[in-house]
Amino acid sequence: MTASTASPLPSVNRQFILAARPVGMPKESDFRLVSAPLPALASGQVLLRTVFLSVDPYMRGRMNGIRTYADPVDIGQLMIGATVGKVAQSQNPAFQVGDIVVGYWGWQEYAVSDGKGLQKLDPSLAPISAALGVLGMPGMTAYFGFLDICQPKPGETVVVSGAAGAVGSLVGQIAKIKGCRAVGIAGTDAKVAWLTGELGFDAAFNYKTTEDYVAKLRELCPQGIDCYFDNVGGAVTDAVLPLLNVRARISVCGQISQYNSAKPEPGVRPYIFLLTKQSRAEGFIVSQWMDRFPEGVAQMARWLKEGKLKHREQIVEGFENAPRALIGVLQGDNTGKMLVRFASS
Amino acid sequence: MTASTASPLPSVNRQFILAARPVGMPKESDFRLVSAPLPALASGQVLLRTVFLSVDPYMRGRMNGIRTYADPVDIGQLMIGATVGKVAQSQNPAFQVGDIVVGYWGWQEYAVSDGKGLQKLDPSLAPISAALGVLGMPGMTAYFGFLDICQPKPGETVVVSGAAGAVGSLVGQIAKIKGCRAVGIAGTDAKVAWLTGELGFDAAFNYKTTEDYVAKLRELCPQGIDCYFDNVGGAVTDAVLPLLNVRARISVCGQISQYNSAKPEPGVRPYIFLLTKQSRAEGFIVSQWMDRFPEGVAQMARWLKEGKLKHREQIVEGFENAPRALIGVLQGDNTGKMLVRFASS
Question: Which of A:89-108 have CB within 8 Å of B?
Fold first, then answer.
């Protein structure tokens, strides 16, 4: 009998479900906190107690009723999301009570799992929350989405939008590691100061207080733009286009400025720029490099250890604040990686 | 002494120069027909008598005062363009009077050349005008711009805009050779009939008489769109985006709907589609494959001989009609390759 129990059994499990499809920016009332009974463990199962929930811009897309690259969250369904937690009970010989694991069990305090998709973490190697950030999905997004699609070369100029976010802040630092000029676009002066003062970006600007993005980019990118890593879209991206160099590469990672629009707002079509500059724009989803994640995690961990990568977490305390945390991410409130820490942890 | 003369020396050379930068659609008055003396040949030079001038959409871009991938034509300067002609005099041992050559000597009846950039044609292998079409720049544009950027696979759906043009008509046929479903977009019912009736496109539609492009594309592309070869841009391209399949490829060859716009007209930004479909849009200029042109010419010639490729020429008689021919191309008057034949030939 491998069952073991380290703490008293919880009687109920609190979960956030999708209550309504948001119109524009999500409201707290679009989420509902519900209590569900916790089923008893069957053989092979583990009970997980959530410690951290990752809060990411892509979640907004899943709240629409439209299938994109993944199924949407249905009304009444558990909100999806990446999580780190502790094994609280185990009927699975591969897991011991107290093991720390990362998985994708969504917005809930507890989850029952058969162990598939769980990965054990070694807290002595890195803080466990890193598995949701620099060593997790955002880290892999930065590593593969930038290096594979942009193929940056030393001396090139790399522009990053959403540069103070979990992904963008890593992309700019990887650009520096690769010998590029890194220019960030962010939404507050404090973020701009963090990018240039702490992370080593060569330049950055606050798009909320800048009138003419093209003029500003021209000033900060005197050699033009070779790589553009786009988290934001909209007018910021429009302004990058006239400055593209020949054979420029645009990695389309996110379009956070557009996620709350019911239909795409009109803007500048990029084709004439792609044509005259023989340039390329490519969208990706990080899972396309799934089989290479070990390479990405190993490299990012090495750079972390060498002090070449810095990362910041913004932690919202208390599960009940998860909707507010997501709304904050969509409003650009976060610097670095946004996480929710569960009180029970 | 290698000099020889097959016909009486011309006294003057007629040329079209750029008279004014067009605002919107070029007018005939934006060109001026001038007479220039023909210099005597120096050693190593040949005198070329133009037989065919190629008229192509890209010429519109060169009439603006803006450097794109090539220098603009200055006011008062000879209009550029690809040409086929006969050697009328030769002081160059590599060329004999009567040789037929293809080159890039522009809108003029005669040209003096040192032989660089000239390529001899064998009239017994293909009609000499083919060097300006299926075996020339438009053919290479179709061959490399489609095959290299779209990498079509059998069973995929390929949509081509400007499908009845010199390039588009070849792209659809190459798509069929590669086992794809080819769907064309063109601007007259006669063009549509030509595409489906003679060239083997699986389907086509007239965008000028179609109200809802997305609905029409959905009907004609029941499996979605894997490759889009774009000559046109604008609303037609906007309509392709929602139908892209995962890992779709857009080859940006031309944007003829936009060439006469002083600034890009607002439209649908493609990024959210590229992102959710992990898709790619890439612009090119045919010269990037220059070192592989022999491969392209050989393959296109083989397909022509095998009857797998058909091509059509639309010939405007008389050099003085060259401006009208270019305006016609920009208005979509041509089916297949537009050429000007010189009366003196």
Answer: none
